[in-house]
Amino acid sequence: MQCPLLYRFRVIDKLPEKPSEAATRGTLVHAVLERLFDSPAGDRTAPKAKALIPGQWDRLLESKPELTELFDGDAGGERLAGWLGEAEQLVERWFSLEDPTRLEPAERELFVETELDSGLRLRGVIDRIDVAPTGEVRIVDYKTGKAPRPEYAEGALFQMKFYALVIWRLKNVLPRRLQLVYLGSGDVLTYDPVPADLERVERKLLALWDAIRLATETGEWRPRPTKLCGWCDHRAVCPEFGGTPPVYPLSVRPAESEEGVQGRMEPVRAEAGQPAALEGP
Questions:
Q1: Strands 177-182 and 137-143
Q2: What is the pLDDT of residues 93-127, one digit of tens each?
Q3: Alpha helices (runs of H) in the chain, residue ranges in sequence order
Q4: What torsion, rounded to 10 degrees, do the Cα atoms 141, 142, 147, 150 define?
Q5: Taking CA atoms, which of 53, 141, 167, 169 is between 20 and 30 Å from 118?
Q6: H-run or E-run covering 128
Q7: What is the pTM of this model?
C-alpha cells in the first residue's frame, strides 16, 4: 500500500535490504519491554529495564550476525554507545506513559492467524494483549518513533484495526481498546473500535488482496513516489530514479483492469499453491 513496486522488490524479487539503525533499535526496545514482564511486578523498574539492554543486544546479534554491519568502522565504539544510549532513553520514557508494576499482560509478542469467509488468511504478531478482570481486551503496540500528526493518525490505526479484526474473527471477541504507545514523542494514541469499523477494514483487505493478485498476474507493479523514497534501498532499480527493475520472475498475462489502494500496511503474497494471506506490519 505504501508502494506497489517496493512490495514487488521485497516479496517477489526478494531483493536484499541493509539493516537500519532505527528499525534495529525498535526491535531491541521491543525485546526489552517484552522481557521486563518476566520479572515480578515490584522489580519492573526503569533501571532494571535499562540493565536488560546489553544482554538483549547480544541475543539480537547472535540471531542476526549481519547487524554488526551497522557499526562498521566504529573502532572506538562511540557510535554503538550513543545508539544504545538512545535505546535507554526510549525505554525510560515508557515508564512515564505506563506503569508496568500494575500490568499483567495476558499475551506478549503473540502470533495470531485467522481465515476469513473468503478464504483469505490474516496473520500478524501483537506486541501486548491486556485482559481486564471483566474480560475486556486491550491491544497494545509500542512505537519507537514519534506520534503522527492528527491528519495521519488513521494510517497508524489501520494496523491496530487489522489486529482487532483478527482477534474478533478468531475468538469472537471485539477488543475494547486499541492503544499505540509512541516512545519517541511520549504520546499515547487510543481508539475504541466498533463492529462497523472492523467490517470496513475487512472489505479494504479483500480489495487489497484483489489488487495484489492482479498485479502478481500482470506484473504491473507501479512505483508510488513519496518522501519515504529517500530511505528506500532500491532506488538503483526504480524507474522513478532512472533505474531498471530486474526481470520479472513470474509468468504474466495482459492487464485487464487497474486497481489502487491507499495505506501503509505491507502484506505478504502467498506462495504458489498456498492459501492467500495478508500479514500485519
A1: parallel
A2: 999 999 999 999 999 999 999 999 999 999 999 99
A3: 4-7, 21-36, 46-51, 53-63, 78-94, 153-171, 195-218
A4: 10
A5: 141
A6: strand 121-131
A7: 0.87
